[in-house]
UniProtKB/TrEMBL annotation:
Record domain Glycosyltransferase 2-like: where: 3-164
Protein name, UniProt field: Glycosyltransferase involved in cell wall biosynthesis
Family matches, as InterPro entries: Glyco_trans_2-like, Nucleotide-diphossugar_trans
GO MF annotation list: hexosyltransferase activity
Alphabetized CDD domains for the sequence: Glyco_tranf_GTA_type
The species this protein was found in: Catenuloplanes niger
Length: 380
């Protein structure tokens, strides 16, 4: 039996579609645990209607305690030997549960994880967060062989063996935002093997208009603090466990994406938010090898350099200039550079090499000629 845990809180516009997609799964042996987390809209009534119509659905109520607590409540109530999480504003493709459950049944892996599509009023399209990870199916793999799986940090595109979940006493952090990463990355590391399925198994809704999701509220201080606490805790977990290579890979991805996600809103943020951002991120960057920062794209590399220098006015100007993309490339001598603010200012704390995108065509030709000369001379 597969237990599907669905936390429910004030999602009346989306809930019926979500629950209907679960009821329509081609995998029929379901135990669907709906956890009403103190909803104040029509969500509880909609959930109760599904319970009345379908004996596989059960409803558990509790005072509002947040997504992590609701998921943990659902796990305690779950009866299946397999475990799946679905957020109540999202949608499952009809064969999602069957595809994932069949994978772990075939291989004996501790969990299976699958591709994701973004859902909005325009329809479905690939999730950029997942597309690079789920290019092809890999059965019985592991994050030590597939380090890009460290980027697979969402709980809802997976089916877990309940025995694996209980053995490691996994539980979502409560009272915080971004509950997934502190559990999903350790799950990847601690699993004996994982099945990666390239077909989409989840439709992740992008809320539109004024009804914004957690990931759309990055200008809120609590949003940043909770995201930082989660990724920092995982980095420390990897370090304390001796997974040094994984930690470096993970830290690099945090700098490229998780924390860079908040860089973009700094020009509109209040001063206390900016200072908090600088303090926390510099604590994290103190543990990140310089080569990780050197390998970032030019605009991101320049921004993090200014974070390290705590040069706020310059940082905000570079962020504004970088936002729209399409920053032109210019040539200075034999090298090419991104034409971002202060490129030619000659500031000692902003060396021009930070702007460099690679050698010019002339320089590449010069390098090629030099290599040919050295190759020819070595045979004389």
């Amino acid at each position: 039996m597969l237990s599907v845990v669905v936390p429910v809180y004030n999602v009346a516009p989306y809930l019926a579609e979500c629950l209907a997609s679960i009821a329509a799964q081609t995998y029929h042996d379901l135990d669907v645990v709906l956890v009403d987390d103190g909803s104040t809209d029509d969500s509880a009534r909609i959930a109760a209607e599904f319970v009345r119509r379908d004996a596989r659905f059960r409803l558990v109520g509790q005072a509002n305690a947040g997504l992590g607590a609701a998921r943990n409540t659902g796990v305690r109530a779950a009866r299946g030997d397999l475990l799946q999480f679905v957020d109540s504003d999202d949608v499952l493709p009809p064969d999602a549960a069957e595809v994932l459950a069949a994978a772990v049944a075939r291989t004996g892996s501790d969990f299976a994880t699958g591709n994701t599509l973004r859902l909005d009023s325009r329809g479905l399209r690939p999730s950029r967060m997942h597309a690079r990870i789920f290019t092809h199916t890999r059965l019985r793999t592991h994050v030590t062989r597939d380090p890009e799986l460290l980027g697979d940090r969402t709980a809802w595109n997976k089916v877990f063996r309940r025995e694996f979940w209980d053995r490691h006493r996994f539980a979502f952090p409560e009272g915080v935002l971004y509950e997934d990463t502190p559990v999903m990355v350790p799950a990847h590391v601690l699993a004996r093997s994982v099945d990666v399925v390239h077909v989409p198994v989840y439709h992740w809704r992008r809320r539109e208009g004024g009804d914004r999701s957690i990931t759309q509220r990055r200008e809120e201080t609590r949003n940043f603090v909770d995201r930082f606490t989660g990724v920092d805790g995982v980095s420390r977990f990897l370090g304390e466990g001796g997974w040094t290579d994984l930690r470096h890979w993970y830290d690099a991805s945090v700098v490229r994406s998780d924390l860079a996600f908040y860089l973009r809103v700094l020009p509109e943020a209040p001063d206390d938010y900016v200072q908090l951002f600088l303090d926390r991120c510099n604590e994290f960057l103190d543990r990140v090898p310089q080569r990780v920062l050197d390998g970032l794209p030019v605009a991101t590399r320049l921004q993090w350099h200014l974070v390290r220098q705590r040069r706020v006015p310059e940082l905000l100007e570079v962020i504004r200039a970088s936002r729209d993309g399409g920053v032109p490339v210019v040539r200075r001598g034999l090298w090419r550079y991104r034409e971002l603010p202060y490129l030619d200012a000659g500031l000692p704390y902003l060396p021009r090499r930070l702007y460099r995108v690679g050698p010019s065509r002339l320089h590449r030709a010069f390098i090629a000629i030099n290599r040919k000369i050295k190759f020819r001379d070595s045979y004389r």
